[in-house]
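@channel anyone free to eyeball this complex?
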Amino acid sequence: MSVANVVLHVADVHKRFGGLHALADIDLEVEEGQTHAIIGPNGAGKSTLLNVIIGKLAPTSGQVVFDGTVLTGRKPYQINQLGIARVFQTPEIFADLSVLHNVMIPALAKRDGAFKLNMMGSLAYEKKIREEAEHMLEDVGMLSSREDHAGSLSRGDKRRMELAMCLIQHPRLLLLDEPTAGMSRHDTNTTIELLKKIKSRGMTKVIIEHDMHVVFSLADKISVLAQGRIIADGTPDQVRGNPKVQEAYLGG
Ligand code: ADP
Ligand code: MG
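replying in thread with the prediction:
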């Protein structure tokens, strides 16, 4: 018997956009500490599923449960406060601010209101956050860019910065929507190494990915989505040999 702890449970989720059944019968269990990949061709419903999990979209039916708490019906910021952070397919950053400030903001946003009444406490807190942000930037290999304008970064660097913006929140669950989209092979490999490093710290991750190289390098478990349905799931080896998966990718 498995004693694995299911931290995220997507239960019988459907999502319709008018006549389009974008998600149908989605059941997904993500275990604590694992990297769970969701793959599938373009238009399969991957981003829709991620947006349902983070509360950006309401499912037409079904629900999402995180660590015993029903997420469905909660707002994205409330879901974020429960310990879920996400990296979007298109990075959401503050282009006019420095890289360092971008990374400090998610941590400062969590600041307890009481700090604002205590100037010295506030300054000490800001110093602590600055140090932590520098540490996160070092982790993602961007410390030397800390004073650069975020808007001037390359696409790969923006993604790395955004990852640091997530890590500083110390999430229990990190969701990544195509974290290597648009990156060169070199940047992709750097990002894979970085995600492996995060994995070794035991953070649970759901990664949505089109790039097979990334998925097979990282995932403990893979769910394959095609036309809004999960057509296969299992370990990378199980999924790789599945004829339905090959058909969805090659025949579709
Ligand atoms: P993927 O991320 O796998 O490429 P998406 O989840 O973005 O796929 O899209 C799944 C399907 O749902 C596509 O057919 C897409 O056109 C449609 N879709 C996504 N978002 C919306 C929306 N807000 N309104 C209507 N249709 C949408
Ligand atoms: Mg997508």
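from a first look: Residues 17, 20, 22, 40, 42-48 surround adenosine-5'-diphosphate (ligand 1) (CB under 6 Å).
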